[in-house]
Design a protein that fits this description.
Chain B: Keywords: Membrane, Transmembrane, Transmembrane helix. Chain B: It is found in: Membrane. Chain B: It is a multi-pass membrane protein. Chain B: Its main location: membrane. Chain B: This is Energy-coupling factor transporter transmembrane protein EcfT. The complex is a heterodimer of chains A (about 250) and B (about 260). Chain A is α/β, with parallel strands linked by helices and about 250 residues long. Chain A has helices spanning about 45-50, 80-85, 105-115, 120-130, 150-160, 180-195, 205-210, 230-235, 235-240, and strands at about 5-10, 20-30, 35-40, 60-65, 70, 85-90, 165-170, 200, 215-220, 225-230. Chain A contains 9 helices and 10 strands. In chain A, the strands form 2 sheets. Chain A has a 6-stranded mixed β-sheet with strand order 6-7-8-3-9-10. Chain A is globular and about 50 Å long. The model of chain A has no long low-confidence stretch (mean pLDDT about 90). Chain B has 10 helices and 2 strands, in the order ααααββαααααα. Chain B has a two-stranded antiparallel ribbon with strand order 1-2. In chain B, helix 2 (about 20-35) packs parallel to helix 10, helix 3 runs antiparallel to helix 10 (about 245-265) and helix 4 packs antiparallel against helix 5. The longest helix of chain B has about 30 residues, at about 155-185. Chain B starts with 14 loop residues before the first helix and ends with a helix. Classes of the chains: A alpha/beta (about 250), B mainly alpha (about 260). Chains A and B meet through helix 2, strand 6 and helix 3 of A and helix 4, helix 7 and helix 9 of B.
């Protein structure tokens, strides 16, 4: 599923005295099956941007096109259920959203909401938990008894379990140890390579951009500065210096 | 939910913003009490006019405010409608099964509609134009006399200011959790009442857990900085009573006295 942003702007608090334009005329294209990294400083509009990918926010101006879904400011929320089934979004610190009685319940929650049969949802949940390396004896424990790193894996599994065609991740490895970081990144990459999932990932790690991404989008103050390949980005030393970006 | 502005502060430097918060709180309470005591149809209109004048001078923005209280307006309309249909007294104009429209019902429905609207608008305006810090200062200054009977006023005002401080944090948190659960296929605006109540579990549960965690962290941070309860603390902020406060104070009191003398009697 390809993704296209056409002149997308987004304004927060449109009715208030001081509206805030978080996205300014964003245009880019993401190919099916690619891994795209979004980089930029805090407050550059990355989180606002990814909330457009499954229709949590609708563009104030312009249009977001994902496969045959068109989202603009007139789109009705009810039509977005099908889109959300195809686009899995994992926000920052997803372990803060766990709620169910057991790990398995929490991981199958999404699948059941999206209309999978209970037996299939449970099977998918077990598969994604195994993929993320969560030990089987945790399956019937309460998610809150797990360690932070394990909770993160459970939360990630909760989205992978309904097999989204597009996977959006907001700093999936923030706060993990180097080993956990490497494992999670390897799993994300394997989803792209083996299952052709289109992946969009917000990150602050230039190493991840260099090692895993096919395309990189650089944001600053709500504007898109560049949409390019990591190779070209890291060769453009003056640009990196000018925008305070590091090298891998 | 997106337009839920209760408890939010809208920073500004308007005439209303600059009034002494103690004055604002007192007059807010006064107007609410007055609106509860009136029985004529004309009085609420005068009070609404006062509200309108206050909104205009506060520069909060009509659209913003009305959007913010939409939820309350719906609730108030619902209660008024129930009062209109369920109370039977005086002349009955129409009835069906347990429902009826009577002269008394119509009167109390309209009055309670106005009362709640006035109370919501004026308290919303107070919260929008008074920063949380000012509010807690005001409350602690009002509680000050209670010190003589050994009420831990300092602790109470600290608790209040912490609570107020965390309202926006928790609103933000609710939004984040809702976004995450929507991404996992939860449809908040679908299904019957029981389904919708069930749908609040995936929001409320993480919210409570995160709030308890945050409270613990805050407590640790306070202990590490040597906080001990119930000591006398000087304040960096002083509240000042200006000539404008006197003018507004007298004007509102006069309006309310006139309402009760001329219209209500």
């Amino acid at each position: 599923m390809a993704i296209q942003f056409k002149n997308v702007s987004y304004v927060y608090h449109q009715n208030a005295k001081q509206p805030f334009e978080a996205l300014k005329n964003i245009n880019f294209h993401i190919q099916t099956g690619s891994l795209t990294a979004i980089i930029g400083q805090t407050g550059s509009g990355k989180s606002t941007l990814i909330r457009h990918l499954n229709g949590l926010l609708h563009p104030t101006k312009g249009e977001v096109i994902i496969d045959h879904f068109h989202i603009d400011n007139k789109t009705d929320d009810a039509n977005l259920y099908e889109l959300r089934k195809k686009v899995g979004v994992i926000f920052q610190f997803p372990e803060h959203q766990l709620f169910a009685k057991t790990v398995l319940d929490d991981v199958s929650f999404g699948s059941i909401n999206f209309g999978f049969k209970k037996s299939i949802a449970i099977k998918n949940a077990k598969d994604s938990l195994k993929l993320l390396g969560v030990n089987e004896h945790w399956f019937h424990q309460a998610p809150l008894e797990l360690s932070g790193g394990q909770m993160r894996r459970v939360a990630l599994a909760g989205v992978l379990a309904f097999h989204p065609k597009i996977l959006v991740l907001d700093e999936p490895t923030a706060g993990l140890d180097p080993n956990g970081h490497r494992q999670i990144m390897a799993i994300i990459k394997s989803l792209q390579v083996e299952q052709h999932v289109t992946i969009i990932m917000v990150t602050h790690s230039m190493n991840d951009v260099a090692n895993y991404a096919d395309q990189v989008i650089v944001m600053q103050n709500g504007k898109l500065l560049q949409s390019t390949t990591p190779k070209k980005l890291f060769q453009n030393i003056p640009f990196l210096k000018q925008h305070h970006l590091g090298l891998p | 939910m997106d337009n839920f502005i209760f408890g939010q502060y809208s920073p500004g430097d308007s005439f209303i913003h600059r009034l002494d918060p103690r004055n604002k709180l007192f007059l807010t309470i006064l107007i609410i009490v007055a609106s509860l005591l009136i029985h004529s149809w004309v009085s609420p209109l005068i009070l609404l006019l006062v509200c309108a004048f206050a909104i205009q001078t506060s520069h909060v923005g009509w659209h913003f405010l009305i959007h913010g209280i939409k939820f309350f307006i719906h609730m108030i309309l619902l209660t008024s409608l129930l009062q209109l249909l369920l109370s039977r007294s005086g002349k009955v104009y129409w009835y069906f099964w347990i429902f009826n429209i009577s002269s008394f019902g119509a009167h109390i429905a309209i009055m309670s509609f106005f009362r709640f609207i006035i109370a919501i608008i004026i308290s919303m305006l107070f919260l929008l134009t008074t920063s949380p810090i000012e509010i807690s200062d005001t409350i602690s200054s009002l509680l000050n006399p209670l010190k003589f009977i050994h009420v831990p006023v300092e602790d109470i005002s600290l608790t209040i200011s912490i609570a107020l401080r965390f309202v926006p944090t928790m609103t933000g948190e609710v939004h984040r959790i809702m976004d995450a659960q929507k991404s996992r296929g939860v449809q908040f605006h679908k299904g019957n009442v029981i389904k919708r109540i069930k749908m609040s579990i995936p929001i409320m549960f993480p919210l409570f857990i995160n709030t308890f965690k945050r409270a613990e962290d805050l407590a640790s941070a306070m202990i590490l900085r040597g906080y001990t309860g119930n000591r006398y603390r000087s304040s960096i902020r002083k509240m000042h009573w200006h000539i404008n406060d006197t003018i507004v104070f007298i004007a509102i009191i006069l309006i309310i006295i006139l309402i009760f003398l001329l219209i209500e009697s």
